[in-house]
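Contributing: when you submit paired examples, paste them exactly as shown. First protein:
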Amino acid sequence: MFTLVSRLAVWWPVKVQQPDPDQPGTFTEVGFEARFLIVGKSEMRGYAEERDALARELVDTIEAMSTADDKTAVAQTIRAHEKALEDHDAGMFHRLITDWRGVVDADGQPIPFSAAALDMAIDQDRIRRALKLAYDAAISEDGARLGNSGPLPAPGP
């Protein structure tokens, strides 16, 4: 029986590409699972509109750089816009990710999910990118089919 809900909580594999500490110049794939909230279009629309406005401000400021008299001030404004965009995205990660499993510390001990631990993870470009790709796959029919087709890679360092 199909259950209609406004927010669906699902576990989804997250595959992180990172430099291999044992093989210089190569990458390895490690993974964990994240519990995502799959939300409706109306909830995502507000987020997308806010993000688009922040991105437009950033682009406008970058374009203004070429004609600005005070390039240092414009560069500071660009950094402020980039930070606002990063903060907005971090807020969305906090809204959509509610738990994880398979995340361990350097000693192999599980790291419990928390807001601080998620902040530490999304501060890393490779992890933030992997989480976004996993969420995008979870909300698409093609991603759902592919996401269920194989086992997770073993959790890594």
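Second protein:
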Amino acid sequence: MPEKVFRARGLTKTYKTGEVEVHALRGLDLDIANREVVVLLGPSGSGKSTLLNIMGGLDHATSGSLFFGDIDLTNLDDRGLTAYRRHHVGFVFQFYNLVPSLTAYENVALVTEIAEHPMRPEEALALVGLESRADHFPAQLSGGEQQRVAIARAIAKRPDVLLCDEPTGALDSKTGIIVIDALLGVNSQLGTTTLIITHNASIQSVADRVLSFADGHISGIHENSARRAAAELSW
């Protein structure tokens, strides 16, 4: 991957409900570096999820440009965005979206069947510390374990980018720490650029950068130089 994974310039997103316009993003400029861990912090409606959806190829920007490497995502049609999601992006959401009738191993294997160069399901589960739970069904796993299976499923296709929307939102604080540790382990071991949306300010200490959002803008940027330096030494 190039040094800059994402480059957004003048990015806007406007939703229309009848005659009412909602400006979710207002001319956003942003660079995301390769291997970076970035936390997107801010209240509901501030534009975090809208940005993540556009970065993930789940939605189209209204105007401006967004590049993933040399690929202009704002010019891709639906078929192009599907290919982009399949080959480059892993998603982790607040709710785990596991198939209840499949084991942890089988849930991860669903992704490996459509990926170009996947890792083995047991390898992905081992990266999140769940190799011993591979034959368990979701109902036999705790919430934190289910979320780690969801992370294993997301990383099994070896994505360049991992986009996480409130991955600890349905968990207690102790379990949330375990899930965040799993995400950081993936970033460290695979070099996966990771963006994490959260309302929880305590998570910001784990990031290379924290982007604070308000009313469709980035209202503040906090650099964690110590965390970045330690990560670079591990690479």
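If you have annotations for the second protein, write them as plain sentences, like these:
The chain has one domain: 4-234.
The chain has a mean pLDDT of 90.
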